[in-house]
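Researcher: Structure prediction, please.
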Amino acid sequence: MFGNYFYHERIRKSVAMFGKMFNDVYIIRKDASGQVISQVKVPLAYASKQKFLERIREQPDTTDQSTAIKLPRMSFEIIAFTYDPQRQLQKTNKINKSGSSISVRNKIYSFVPYLISFQLNLYAKTQDDALQMVEQILPYFSPQYTLTMKPFVEYPDIVEDVPITIQATSFVDDYEGTVEQRRTIIYTLDFEMKANFYGPLGSQGIIRQADANIFNLNEPEVIFEKIRVEPNPINISADSDYGFTETYYGALDSA
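Model: Predicted structure follows.
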């Protein structure tokens, strides 16, 4: 059943698309008079929440930040794949595209729908930094934001919309603790992406000639007439605009 290698990079593209949405989030800090004193672009990485927490807390001494990770920062990861039966189409549906020659046509059967669950975590030392990040993200999701992607490298003209829906928002503030303990405010945003997974590219020959035999009711074994239908010209591409030529043959000619 398996063994036909194919790779459309669907999950890889999904991760890249999701991360790119949050690649330009900035934090601005002001003085008492309201003047901007610094602007920081928030770093983004694909990593688990637990991994970041361990790195943030590995250096408890607040006077030495040589190894502790600097905040603010963002991380995201895939947390689940779920089959989406509501979007499943007829499995025999297919996309037809030009093949390697005019006599071959490629086909791609209907996609299998899945929901990819992403989790985005925002880390900050102060509540103001965290709220700046949150307010730069939430207004774009109401609750859905749609991106466009090219699912096939072989066919860049095929595009599909990818809806991303925000599911929940929560935060944790571990302010309580000893003086030496580093404060970390974490906002967690859960998203759901509607993804389509395609199977391998197939191919099939193109029918360029159709013959219809007409029989006499009194002599069913004898071909009375034969009709042949061919594209005109005969070597035309399947994606081109063309007509048909119908040729009629008598009983003697068909023999």
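Model: Residues 25 and 230 are 60 Å apart (CA to CA).
Researcher: Thanks, that helps.
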